[in-house]
Amino acid sequence: MPFEALGLDPKIAKAVREAGYTEPTPIQTKAIPLVLRGHDVIGIAQTGTGKTAAFVLPILQRLSTRGSATNRRCMRALVIAPTRELVVQIEENVRKYARHLHLRIATVYGGVGERPQIQALRAGTEIVIATPGRLIDLMEQGHVDFSGLEVAVLDEADRMLDMGFLPAMRRIVKALPKQRQTMMFSASLSKEIETLTNEFLSNAEVVQIGRRANPAELVTQFVYETTKEAKLALLIHLLRDATLDSVLVFSRTKHGADKIARRLSSSGINTATLHSNRSQSQRIAALKAFKAGTVRVLVATDIAARGIDVEGISHVVNYDFPPQPEDYVHRIGRTGRAKAVGDAISFVTPDDRGNLRDLERFISRGIPRKVAEGFDASAYKALAPTMTSWRPSRPSAPRPQRPNTYASSRPQSRKDARPAHGPRPSAGGNGRAAVNSGPRFADRTRRRP
Ligand code: AMP
Q: Which atom belonging to ligand 1 lies closest to the Cα atom of 89?
């Protein structure tokens, strides 16, 4: 189906084509017509599904077709997103799709000077993309005029809640005109999100796209058992393989990220870091170099990497095991985006085992264990006995609930945990069964296509 068939203006459809997209993604097919008809929409979709274009394209349509001399220079659309990186990324999308329109676009986020942002708001801009904190700062200083606002978008609302932005979101939405169209996007439809929907949206249509929490669809996952002491050497060993050509490494801490980057750099591997101690310009430069391929490895913390969209990431490495199962899903969603395939590698130390088993329950599948060929782990510290993976068909082993962070975010039932469109854990015969099965496949490797 071409984009025009969704009711989009030819100028916008042309820009989309020029961006290389020939067909709308499922979230776009469902959401765009609803938004064009003026509905409030709640989109349950993760990054990687094309959700940004799902709200940006109809907003552009509204701004281009209903523009008049009187409302030309006032803020007509506001997009709120949790992180600066996401704001910059949404801005890139807006500029790409708006290239044949004459619209002013401004971004508002912290970590950089306020002056240029204030000037852009003063000069008049139709679209503003903002993080909540800085927007509130500028609202308090009287630089923000919402009187002509027609559309508001809350992107990654679940993440904004996690980051404690609820009061800020409430303050912003309260300041908006009552007569408006509102869209909210979230990776999942939790109780909190439902409450927010009732508060911020009216008669919203829900558009739900099969959870990309089905990581096995596109991403090959495996685990290396290791120790804290051996992790750095193991990473350097794995990076000898040239197929790991664009690698996003997740570290739990900023300090850890710096340490990994220093070691990789001193081993001759081009590495950059992305975390909140880096200045905004350093973060933008790091992402740019990674996207351009001049940096092979980007070491990031979860918050900094949230929502980043880099095409062609070949591997995600969970150097530190993710603190929540959702973080795992978000992290590995950085690879295997759109139609690409990617690998997700997790380092698991004896301390991470409980969390790994909980993760395997959460995603309803075992993650194959793998052994790094030619890597002498004993040089770093003897490995603890081999782990076994969780098997879906093991009814006699109910584990006592452990009071850890995974327990609270575990789906309520196995049924909930199973991705809507994914194969059942025990499914075989699809050529990728080895990836989705348990430890029997521990030593299998997969050739990249
Ligand atoms: P998002 O979910 O908005 O982060 O988008 C994920 C990726 O899909 C981005 O790289 C988009 O540029 C890309 N994308 C958006 N729309 C389409 C489409 N219709 N076909 C293929 N890729 C798309």
A: 4
